[in-house]
Specification:
396 residues; alpha/beta; Aspartate Aminotransferase, domain 1; Aspartate Aminotransferase, domain 2; seven-stranded mixed β-sheet; four-stranded antiparallel β-sheet; 15 helices; 14 strands; 43% helix; 16% strand
Length: 396
């Protein structure tokens, strides 16, 4: 029997070493625990902070009409769905929301998913497999990358917004089915895909286009209908994905597309088939959310004003904002440790802005991801700008 404990492999030591290495490279992640509703001002550990972290772009996450709709929906439909959609969990609330989302996004049909991650996984794996080809922007959301790998289709990635490279890839492909994947608004850069040119390539080379509009739905276009409305574009080859926990303020996701696409997902979308349906009272509340989005032009106008103001406030900083006209305003610092330091310095001043580091963003591009909401006030943005300038002066 061995008595030397050093000669025996200790369970989990390799995991501990990996975690230590992440901490040493300023890549360790921590969670904050909110003690208040999502809002421009949140409470963490008993202290109030001015927050620029959430994707609650329209300030609906704590809207009184949505809270009332949740209570009404729970009274009518109960709490849990109790089963998957294809067994016994597809509620009238789900059905009404799917019809409303199809109408709102101007597609023939829509299908609810529990999350955007599951929606992307469901679509990509249902429509592609071995022998097919997928083409993806290098800055796409992780869920699109993971979905492509799960599909076992051949994956080709092109440089961010590098449509000339994409065209060469499409032209060289002999695959029977081609699928192009792209964020509509890139979640860490805030820039918008040149959709007319992207769609033109898909039409020229007979490819489907999956457009993940998680950060455009509710924010862009007429009545907040999203990136397609922003460009005044429609096409039967577009598979449109929107999320319902960001600008819509609640939870979930949906796919809007032609009828045969939706039927394929019902028949073959594993992340749709093999999971319990979302609580129906959330769908009931989202019907109210769609009303608020459609009638909330003033919220989008205010977001545009706040975005312009933030750019002015950051002009003198050594860290530059990436070019973005959306509520996502990335302030790039490069080094992981520097992003963490500035984030912590802001926190000491009562302001929360999350430091984003690899692998969420490319190496050497660590940043503060400043996220604006129509619930913010001008004074909030001015306060953030002043704090950043003070931190810059202190470090110099």
């Amino acid at each position: 029997m061995l008595n030397d404990s050093d000669s025996i492999h200790q369970p989990g030591e390799d995991l501990r070493e990996y975690l230590r290495s992440r901490e040493n490279r300023s890549l360790y992640r921590y969670r904050l625990t909110l003690e208040s509703p999502q809002a421009p001002r949140v409470t963490v550990n008993g202290r109030e902070y001015l927050a620029f972290c959430s994707n609650d772009y329209l300030g609906l996450a704590n809207h009184p009409e949505l809270i009332a709709a949740v209570c009404e929906g729970a009274a009518q439909y109960g709490v849990g769905a109790g089963a998957s959609h294809l067994v016994n969990g597809h509620s009238r609330a789900h059905h009404l929301l799917e019809e409303a989302l199809a109408s709102f996004t101007r597609h023939p049909r829509a299908l609810l998913f529990s999350t955007g991650y599951m929606a992307n996984a469901g679509v990509v794996t249902a429509l592609t497999g071995r022998g097919d080809a997928i083409f993806a922007d290098k800055l796409n959301h992780a869920s699109l990358n993971d979905a492509a790998l799960l599909s076992h289709a051949r994956l080709s990635r092109y440089p961010h917004l590098g449509l000339a490279v994409l065209e060469r890839q499409l032209a060289a492909s002999q695959a029977k089915r081609k699928l192009v994947l792209s964020d509509a608004v890139f979640s860490m850069d805030g820039d918008i895909v040149p959709l007319p040119k992207l769609l033109e390539l898909c039409e020229r080379y007979d490819a489907w286009l999956l457009l993940d509009d998680a950060h455009g739905f509710g924010v862009l276009g007429d009545q907040g209908r999203g990136s397609l409305a922003h460009f005044n574009i429609s096409s039967p080859r577009i598979i449109y994905i929107g999320t319902l926990g960001k600008a819509a303020g609640v939870f979930g996701a949906f796919v809007a597309a032609q009828g045969e696409i939706i039927e394929m997902l019902i028949q073959c979308g594993r992340s749709y088939i093999y999971t319990t349906a979302t609580p129906p009272f959330l769908s009931h509340a989202l019907l109210k959310s769609l009303e608020l989005i459609g009638s909330g032009a003033w919220r989008r106008e205010k977001l545009a004003r706040l975005t312009g103001l933030l750019k002015q406030e950051c002009r003198s900083l050594p860290w530059k904002l990436l070019p973005s006209d959306t509520p996502i305003q990335p302030l790039v610092m490069g080094e992981n440790a520097k992003a963490l330091q500035v984030s912590e310095a802001l926190r000491q001043k009562g302001i929360l802005v999350t430091a984003i580091r690899p692998p969420t963003v490319p190496q050497g591009t660590a940043r503060l991801r400043i996220s604006l909401s129509s619930s913010h006030d001008i004074e909030d943005v001015v306060q953030l700008g002043a704090a950043l300038r003070e931190i810059d002066r202190d470090r110099g």
